């Protein structure tokens, strides 16, 4: 039974939007939304309000093949590139080639196999940060290096066992007022590379940390779990 | 995060005309946030990526059905994602073990966060209104939104009788809409 009065009807649609209604009530509300513009409007109104909760979550970078998969499903085969091996995808991303137009891209793909072609003429400063367990100063756990091109490499010096239902997330903090920024999930024991685009400009004293989060990463735009390793960037060459 | 400069409605209308570049812009703009929500709902990244894939394919193929006189484009996109994710959850039957501490954290939300939410001028004040609910009404709504739990699942998660949970959610939604309309 769908209430006739506006307010109970709006609340019922709210329950529907949250996915709380069982059949046959859910079908009744669905039919109403399909046929009644006012009900459709109420539905989108609830959805709009709920975006406020969605935006409390931090965005998660999709795997590089997701866009390819979508294109393949849509049959846009002219653009669709065959799924590439993981290593190639990482290299591809790290060069930031996606910014180039396809003509220049084809040329650069050839040229970039030659050493040094992709390097800018005047490299910027490079940094390193040694990440240690909070309160520990004797044992480095991970090392971050940012080379003159601005690319970041995160390397593990320890062999940590992470519980199966947890993920390790990499964060950086420049200004405490802006809060930490997620740099994505990392695989313990594996080296991670991030491009200059992904990492942004680095400055001396910038904080890097690894935290233990629920599977898939922190649901918020900040760490929710304990800090595993933490350290600050130190300038090693200013060129 | 919503980008107020991004024209979601215009982009969906361009998709309806078959503009693939517009769809790619939409992907670049929103895929990360869609995935964030899908991971929170489904608890697994692989299934969440499947969900975002299915939802975005639906967005493209149903873009002609979007009508800006009915509501915002971004809300429309997320309605498709949530519907898809909830179907996936219901089809799965069993619950994935999740760490709900961030929901607890939000259920106890600080007045500062509520204040921040109410400072936003564009009428997006759900968090502010949620903050005005008592915790027993707020918590089940957050569990329904972030975990896609049913009444029964919420009742068992909070060890509260089913009828009480149904009543609290209904009363909570009534209070919310009153606050949101104010």
SSE blueprint and pairings:
The complex is a heterodimer of chains A (239) and B (182).
Chain A lengths: L5 H12 L7 H11 L1 H18 L10 H9 L12 H9 L7 H10 L14 E7 L7 E7 L5 E5 L9 E8 L7 E6 L5 E3 L1 H4 L7 E8 L12 E6 L1 E4 L2
Antiparallel strand pairs in A: 1-2, 1-9, 2-3, 3-6, 4-5, 4-7, 7-8
Helix pairs in contact in A: 1-3, 2-3
Chain B lengths: L7 H9 L3 H23 L2 H17 L11 H20 L8 H7 L3 H9 L6 H7 L2 H13 L3 H7 L4 H20 L1
Helix pairs in contact in B: 1-2, 2-3, 2-4, 3-4, 5-8, 6-7, 8-10, 9-10
Would you mind describing this structure in some detail?
The complex is a heterodimer of chains A (239) and B (182). Chain A is an alpha+beta fold and 239 residues long. Chain A contains seven helices and nine strands; from the N terminus they run ααααααββββββαβββ. Chain A has two domains: 6-113, no CATH class; 126-237, Immunoglobulin-like (Sandwich), CATH 2.60.40. In chain A, the strands form two sheets. In chain A, strands 6-3-2-1-9 form a five-stranded antiparallel β-sheet. Chain A has a four-stranded antiparallel β-sheet with strand order 5-4-7-8, with no helix packed on it. In chain A, α1 packs across α3 (37-54) and α2 (25-35) crosses α3 (37-54). With 182 residues, chain B is mainly α. Helices cover 73% and strands 0% of the residues of chain B. Chain B has two domains: 1-96, Rna Polymerase Sigma Factor, Chain: A (Orthogonal Bundle); 99-182, Orthogonal Bundle (Arc Repressor Mutant, subunit A). Chain B has helices at 8-16, 20-42, 45-61, 73-92, 101-107, 111-119, 126-132, 135-147, 151-157, 162-181. Residues 117-122 of chain B have low confidence and may be disordered. The chains are: A alpha+beta (239), B mainly alpha (182). At the A-B interface, α1, α3 and α4 of A face α2, α3, α4, α5 and α8 of B.
């Amino acid at each position: 039974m769908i209430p006739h009065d506006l307010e109970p009807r709006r609340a019922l649609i709210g329950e529907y939007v949250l996915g709380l209604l069982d059949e046959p009530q859910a079908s009744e509300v669905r039919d109403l939304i399909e046929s009644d513009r006012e009900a459709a409007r109420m539905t989108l109104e609830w959805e709009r309000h709920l975006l406020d909760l969605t935006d409390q979550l931090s965005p998660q970078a999709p795997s590089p093949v997701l866009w390819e998969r979508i294109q393949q499903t849509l049959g846009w085969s002219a653009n669709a590139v065959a799924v590439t091996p993981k290593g190639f995808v990482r290299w591809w991303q790290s060069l930031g080639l996606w910014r180039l137009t396809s003509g220049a891209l084809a040329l650069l793909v050839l040229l970039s196999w030659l050493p040094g072609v992709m390097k800018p003429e005047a490299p910027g400063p490079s940094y390193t940060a040694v990440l240690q367990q909070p309160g520990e100063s004797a044992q480095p756990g991970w090392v971050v290096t940012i080379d003159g091109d601005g690319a970041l490499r995160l390397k593990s010096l320890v062999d940590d066992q992470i519980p199966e239902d947890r993920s390790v997330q990499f964060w950086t903090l420049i200004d405490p007022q802006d809060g930490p920024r997620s740099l994505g999930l990392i695989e313990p024991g594996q080296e991670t590379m991030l491009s200059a685009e992904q990492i942004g400009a680095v400055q001396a004293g910038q904080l890097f940390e690894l935290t233990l989060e629920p599977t898939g990463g922190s649901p918020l735009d900040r760490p929710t779990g304990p800090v595993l390793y933490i350290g600050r960037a130190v300038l090693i060459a200013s060129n | 995060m919503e980008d107020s400069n991004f024209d979601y409605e215009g982009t969906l209308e361009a998709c309806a005309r078959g503009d693939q570049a517009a769809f790619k812009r939409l992907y670049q703009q929103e895929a990360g946030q869609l995935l964030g929500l899908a991971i929170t709902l489904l608890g697994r990244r692989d299934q969440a990526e499947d969900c975002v894939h299915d939802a975005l394919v639906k967005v493209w193929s149903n873009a002609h059905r979007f009508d800006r006189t009915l509501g915002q484009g971004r809300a429309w996109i997320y309605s498709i994602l949530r519907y898809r994710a909830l179907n996936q959850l219901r089809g799965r039957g069993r619950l994935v073990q999740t760490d709900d501490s961030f929901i607890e954290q939000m259920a106890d939300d600080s007045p500062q966060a509520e204040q921040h939410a109410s400072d936003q001028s564009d009428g997006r004040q759900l968090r502010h209104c949620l903050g005005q609910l008592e915790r027993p009404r707020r918590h089940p709504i957050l569990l329904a939104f972030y975990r896609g739990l049913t009444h029964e699942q919420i009742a068992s998660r909070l060890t509260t009788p089913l009828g009480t949970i149904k009543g609290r959610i209904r009363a909570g939604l009534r209070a919310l809409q009153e606050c949101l309309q104010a």
